[in-house]
Amino acid sequence: MTQHLRTQYVYGVLDRDGLRGSNRTRLGLADVSNDDGRLVWKQAFTGHYPEFRRFDLMSRAVTMTTEAAGLDHLGDDQRRDCAILLSTAIGCLDADLGFQASLGADTQTASGLFPHTLPSTCLSSVAIRHRLQGPTIAWVTDADQELLGLQYAADLIESQEASSALVLLGNALSKTHAATVGLESQLCVAAVWGNATTFNELSDVVGSGSLLTLIRHLDAQHRAESC
Amino acid sequence: MSVFIAGRGAVSAFGRGRAALESGIFSGARGVRAVDRLRSLASVTSVAGEYAGDDGTDVADDHRSLVLDMARAAAEEALAEATHFPRTARSTLALVVASTKGELDGIDELESAPLAASGLGNVHRFASRLGQALEIPTPPVAISCACASGLAALSHAARMIMLGQTDHALVVGADALTPFIVRGFASLLALDPEPCRPFDRSRAGINLGDGAAALVLSRDSAMSIGFELSGWGASNDANHLTGPSRDGVGLSLAIERALHRAALAASELDYVHLHGTATSYNDATEARAISHAFGGQRTAPASGTKAQTGHTLGAAGILESVIAVAALERGVAPANVGLRETDVDPNLDLVSAPRDLRNPRHALKLSAGFGGINAAIVLTRSDRTS
Questions:
Q1: B40 touches chain A (CB under 8 A)
Q2: Of B251, B199, B32, whose CA–CA distance to A136 is shortest?
Q3: What is the CA radius of gyration of chain B?
Q4: CB contact under 8 A, B139 and A142
Q5: What SS3 class is residue B193?
Q6: Catalytic center residues of B
Q7: Whether A84 contacts chain B with CB within 8 A
């Protein structure tokens, strides 16, 4: 297991204010989605990404957020040992509703959507793109348990199962399905990558706040540095 | 730091209880049979490992009650075996729950169902209801990692114990079949409508099954039933959304990590309980991965049991760990039911009929799931038995 002594982190966030992150991405939500609210890769990043069109909402959101964080600096050893963790309160409700709707008698079953009815599937889109081969785990949590992802990341590093971790918080629900279930449309995905030292330092900075609080702290700090 | 197994429970196509499961498995019976509860889906699959209850036992006819009943029964059986763990001590128990979909009620009746009270496929809601039913007050940990959920949950609980976050953990896996799940796998053309044949040359896909299983883990050796969870490891293929990496490197990496934690060489393993879904690529990849982990040498005796129970999804890793412990306890590797002639890596020592194991001590259990997720654990007979 490679030990990383250098403190570093990256972060990304995609919410109703748009997409931004450590790699200096600063885009409004309208800049990364088309007219019907579907997240679109080419409007956010340069370079063709043909697989992206096959992704569901959660996969698109976590992939874009991680891209905005930027993992290009990771070496091969780090990628091999990097854990990928997701905590989510609404799980994959968006894909569930889409797949269930496709089971109607007069529609064709959306086979491409079925794998996305599992919360962990979206993580493979990140793993494949960034060649991350560490432990990959999805937790479904209460809405106020967002910090758990960071705790679990620290646990995995402390137990030497990973040398670093990409920690994702993801709750995504499209406008169409939000209306169906009578909830607000949600798009709130955040990612932070770091090692144990980083997580310890960050927890000192933000106290006992949620992962989203941490991300917002990093975001504000980064914005200030960019000015 | 050892993590001891203190109790076991199971509900499967063979009925309620671990005894029914082990009796069915080691006799070579198939719990997979013509669909009954799911007969409206007979055009999709004619067989499944449905839990049909026991003589005189009514089985809940709605999905929500069924999956909760199964999970609760498995958990209570495991807690009952943990005789040193009194009911009054449940407040100190960590609850870790594994499932792919939990309770799916509400998904198909959004306009009529009370949303806040519906399961909606949210595993945390299911885990919370299970915790209430078991009178375990601690907030549950709800893990949903596709078909690797069970081993991910066992690993999580073992990590909590190792890091001193809890002394005891109840790990429960459960999934019950619904049209949502069955038609999902059918849409991927992954189902064999006939009884499946893992690792056989003619294998044509999976059979699904209802299932729930539970293990009580403890740091206290006095609670041990004579077995430990001695190693665990996980990896991602980083290769494909749903299919396994053809070279088996990802799964092999998970095996290496589990063996490293257990401080074992592959050659010290006495038995391997396979994931063995009976899809063409899974079985070939799994055989390649195990062969690689054994350095290209003949492997330990290996068998899978999904031809008998069906693939129980989020419960599979725990249910099959119960079977692997039974194999160590009995000194017998169960047969690969449905296997006649294989075409996978010849180094994999597939057990075609129940085989005696000589004083077996270490077993490897494997799982893999959508998202390229791989998981492995090592189960070890303890030096001392309480």
A1: no
A2: B251
A3: 19
A4: yes
A5: coil
A6: 147, 275, 311
A7: yes
- Distance CA(A77)–CA(B262), nearest Å, equals 22
pLDDT tens, position by position, B60-102: 777 778 999 999 999 999 999 998 777 778 888 999 999 999 9
CATH for B227-381, among 3.40.47.10, 3.10.28.10, 3.40.50.800, 3.40.50.300? Answer: 3.40.47.10
Contact B185 A91 (CB under 8 A): no
Any idea where the domains of chain B sit in the sequence?
A: 4-223, 227-381
Residues of chain A positioned with their CB less than 8 A from the CB of B127: 140
User: Which residues does A142 contact at the CB level (< 8 Å), separation at least 6?
Assistant: A89, B124, B139
* Residue A8 CA from chain centroid, whole number: 18
**Phi and psi, residue A16, nearest 5°:** -65, -15
b vs e for A76-109, b when ≥16 Cβ sit within 10 Å of the residue's Cβ?
A: eebbbbbbbbbbbbbbbbbbbbbbbbbbeeeeeb
Does A29 reach chain B within 8 Å, measured CB to CB? no
**Domain boundaries A9-226, corresponding CATH code:** 3.40.47.10
pLDDT in tens, B97-123: 999 999 888 777 665 556 666 788 889
For residues A167 and A117, the answer to whether their CB atoms sit within 8 Å is no
- Count contacts between A and B (CB, < 8 Å): 162
Q: What are the sequence ranges of the domains in chain A?
A: 9-226
Q: Taking CB atoms and an 8 Å cutoff, what residues of chain B touch A107? A: none
Closest CA to B136 of B107, B161, B172, B183: B172
Which of B123, B179, B238 is facing A127, going by the closest CB pair? B238
Amino acid at site B357:
L
Residues of A within 8 A of B162 (CB-CB) are 159
Which among A159, A141, A151, A135 is positioned nearest to A192, based on CA atoms? Answer: A151
Domain B4-223 fold is Peroxisomal Thiolase; Chain A, domain 1 (3.40.47)
